[in-house]
Amino acid sequence: MTGHAVRVVLPAHLKTLAQVSGEVILALDGDVTPASIIDALEDSYPALRGTIRDPATGRRRPFVRFFACEEDLSHRALDESLPPAVISGTEAFCIIGAMAGG
Is the dihedral of CA 60, 61, 67, 71 positive or negative? Predict the structure, then answer.
């Protein structure tokens, strides 16, 4: 598989860091996984390095969630392929800043 145009929706604070508005379109070759999307985001927007996953462990940051196709993908392995609708660009891969409080 090669040549996928993947749509990514970032939360407002990451859009500000990346200096983008609206969706980000990433051109990916090979498997489309959360890890490949994060790699492409960090390559294209260096200010995002370390904001989505911990650089030391490679794990998703605790208050960051991934959604696509009305499904929470946050607890899947970062190297697991994403749904076909995300791979084809029909659906966006959404990165959401989770809220916590009490």
Answer: positive
| 69, 89 contact by CB (below 8 A) | no
pTM over 0.85: yes
Q: Please give the CATH topology (third level) of the domain spanning 4-97.
A: Ubiquitin-like (UB roll) (3.10.20)
Give me the pLDDT at residue 1, please: 43
Q: Which residue has the higher pLDDT, 92 or 1?
A: 92
Beta bridge partners of 8: 24, 93
Cβ atoms within 10 A of the Cβ of 29, count? 11
Average pLDDT over residues 25-50: 96
Structure tokens at 63: 């208050």
Counting other chains too, the contacts that 79-83 makes at CB distance below 8 Å and 24 or more residues apart are: 79/31, 79/33, 79/34, 79/35, 80/33, 80/34, 81/31, 81/32, 81/33, 82/32, 82/33, 82/34, 82/37
